[in-house]
Amino acid sequence: MSSDLLDALVALEKQKGISREVLTEAIEAALLTAYKRNFNQAQNVRVDLNLDKGSMKVYSRKDVVEEVEDDRLQISLEKAQEINPAYELADIVEEEVTPRDFGRIAAQTAKQVVTQRVREAERGMIYEEYVDREDDIVNGIVERLDARNLYVGLGKVEAVLPVGEQILTESYEPHDRIKVYITKVERTSRGPQVFVSRTHPGLLRRLFEMEVPEIFEGIVEIKTIAREAGDRSKISVHTNNDEVDPIGSCVGARGARVQSISNELNGEKIDIVEWSEDPVVFVGNALSPSKVLDVQVSEDARSTTVVVPDYQLSLAIGKRGQNARLAAKLTGWKIDIKSETDARELGIYPPEGAEVIVTHEISEDPYFEEETSTDTEDVTIDLYSDDEA
């Protein structure tokens, strides 16, 4: 065995982090298999690989017995004591049986084992790197597309962006640079498999953490996210610092921060509302930009009845019910929206002996673009399941 092998193993230990002892054990096991296969030997043998000396030897191992039944695996006590008088019954006698031309086979086998172990080690390191980045955002380059999936290069690995995780309003071309959210990393026989998303609410959360220093530093907290990817999203924010405006921090000067995030998501509109542990206040905020006159809460059914001015009904509902639907997802409450006229006819507004306590004015944020529904009927929105933000 050449000393070049020792030099190669030392280099691999430094560059790839693969222990020399691990490689040595793997090579010895492979040499043992190669010996039995190439020399049609079935006896019990041991391979001794000495990298420091650059030597490799094969030893047969035979049990010392009184009566030999298989001379490939056993040796009589008499013959064993001819080799060494100290041998006794049940001892193991080792005898070198290294074939003359075994060096060539050994070198080839060692090369194969080292190559395989290096490949496995690289896959393992890539897996460990990306499994720690689950629920994180990464930059990638679109490499190729097929009928269902998009494949995004992340540097050391190619990630899969399934069709269900793609924004329907986006078109992708090879070499496009995109930000994706790592949802899952799996270890497979072909190496680590990374799955990414452009629709996951976590992508929106990470983008805000990158764009808004107050969120990254923990001064402002994103409480909940409701997203219809590519179209519209709502996020609720909260802070314990009375000197910080959580909504203003996220919007930025002249809407610069939220506009940057919207541009990254292909123009997706983003409503930012203030979170509250009081469902009356939170539901009223979540229906922004509409004005809310009253919110009545049923704790048992986890539902709310919201009264809005007649002229604000379509705004509260939103186009195709989107505003109300996102508000229900954001708050986790069922929302039943009624116009002021209908609520008065039903006798539920104003509540007897109570005052209207929720008044949410139309947003003055220049970023907001009003979208209303053509349906002016009362609407009830149930919270439906979605990925947790």
Automatic annotation (TrEMBL):
Q: Which SUPFAM superfamilies match?
A: Nucleic acid-binding proteins, Prokaryotic type KH domain (KH-domain type II), Transcription factor NusA, N-terminal domain
**CDD domains in alphabetical order:** KH-II_NusA_rpt1 (cd02134), KH-II_NusA_rpt2 (cd22529), S1_NusA (cd04455)
Instruction: Return the Pfam families for the record.
Output: KH_NusA_1st, KH_NusA_2nd, NusA_N, S1
Q: Which controlled-vocabulary keywords does the entry list?
A: Cytoplasm, RNA-binding, Transcription, Transcription antitermination, Transcription regulation, Transcription termination
- Domain S1 motif, by residue range, is 135-199
Q: What is its main location?
A: cytoplasm
What residue spans carry the region label Disordered? 368-389
Compartment annotation: Cytoplasm
Listed transmembrane segments = none
Record note on quaternary structure: Monomer. Binds directly to the core enzyme of the DNA-dependent RNA polymerase and to nascent RNA.
**What's its job?**
Participates in both transcription termination and antitermination.
Q: Which family does it belong to?
A: Belongs to the NusA family.
Q: What is this protein called?
A: Transcription termination/antitermination protein NusA
Please give the organism. Sporosarcina siberiensis
Name of the gene: nusA
